[in-house]
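A protein record pairs a chain with a discrete description of its three-dimensional fold. The following entry can be read in just this way.
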Amino acid sequence: MSKPPKPNKTGNTAKPGPKGTTSVSGGGGDAFDLPFVDEDVILTGASADATDLDDKLKDLPRIFRVACLIVQGRVDIQDRLVADIETLRPGLLVTAAFATSDDPATAMALAKELDRHAVADDTPELRHIADCVRLLSLPMQNDLANSEDYRRVTRTLMNALAGLPEGVNSKLAADIETFCVGWAMIPALKHRLPRYHRPGLVAASHASFLGDLTAGRRVGAAEEAVWAKIEERTARQTARAEESDSQPNLATHGSMAPVSGQHQRVVAQLSEKEMKNTRLKDLVHQFEGVINTALPLIVPPPLDEVRKTLVFEFPYAENIIDTVLADLIGRPTVLIRPILIWGEPGGGKSLFGRRLAECLGVSCWRTDASRSDATFAGTDRRWSSAEPCHPLLAIARARHANPMVLLDELEKAGGMGRGTRADGVGRLWDCLLGMLEPETSIRYPDPFFQSNVDLSQIVYLATANSVTGLPRPLLDRFRVFKLALPSRDHLNALLPAVVADLARDRGLDARWIAPLDGDEHAAIASAWNGGSVRNLRRLVEVILRDRDTKAIRN
């Protein structure tokens, strides 16, 4: 037998009505419907919080949990909030309306009601839920910056961000910071949102997008800080290792004394006993200028001049130029993190590497990767073909400790070339891994000297026509940039640079070669529609050769 309905506080009798309402009868026999919260909604929200909430979110302030769920695109956030409200303050009519409606006005009315009950019932948690309701429901509108509800949520987010616990997962903390910054930027950057005026969109859906717009510089600064820590740690490790290793008698090598005002680095150190080794005696004289010698480190020239020169010669590579030169800002010596530039043949990748080295004043050691194998890492001195690793040979030839090693067509180094076994052992790719890693390059075990050498100051720049097939561990050690081929629009900017480069190849000052006249320019423009710089260079060579021929005849 069913139980009779309970009288309500006014003495009226509440009867179940249509879904989402309760029918209330008074003494006069009239009846009217009041909304109530469907138990299914409460159960859905409660179970979602209990079973589906990510463990790493559970210790966060409630408003951050809601923000993370918004970013994830969850559809049960409203049910979660309704379940929380019904637990702390059941029976609010506006809660039932909120549970069955997406109307922003209803949501803002609920937030105000929760604020009132937070004070009246001394339940501060209701105030937190009120801000979550605002965050979830505030719509995009032209006067958003003037909205008290928006300002209220902004203050709550920023105050919570300032008190974010130290132990929070770093990726999660970064996502939260991005959301908070993006939320605060919405009114100022609404012009960056093409969907701003689309009806039905809530403001929070744009927060992470706008926050990401500000992340580039923060990520770059964080990268710089990490690299600085790595360099500092490796320097400490080197100092400790040098103290424990057998040290050469520095008194017999006057070149070890540093020159005042000059940045230097000792690349290879051998003790007197090692210097007298019979297997080394006949070979070590070739490296007298490197062993136990403090070699200079090249100091960067004015970066604005370097940039001006490179942009003049490679106007289609301005973004790459700026990124590369950013590594040198504030550095006392030339050191650039490993770079891989790829793109279609003819784009000037190898030329860019050579010109970068020349503009920075460092030597360039070019290696054809298609013809190289693991001998790049050096050969044991037991063999007749013994030699140090090629980066050390680059240092020996340059007579400074930070030359550039240019690895041309790196994607072709994985084939079954010279000295490569069928199992893939002996590839250039494999021996590069230790050289490109800061932790290992500072103490690289050279097989010829059978001693650790310091390769940490070398600049590595690789080129490739494609990155498909390159091993992931190798790609992870490079910063990878795609160099697009220039278009016809770059012709006017490229021609003076091509003429200047051809003049350098002839050993002439570019001022000795007259600029292309109108007919010459038109002839090249009709034959070159963009693409390979190599083809453009050939066309200019034909024009200049024709000039020379006519000059001889006359």
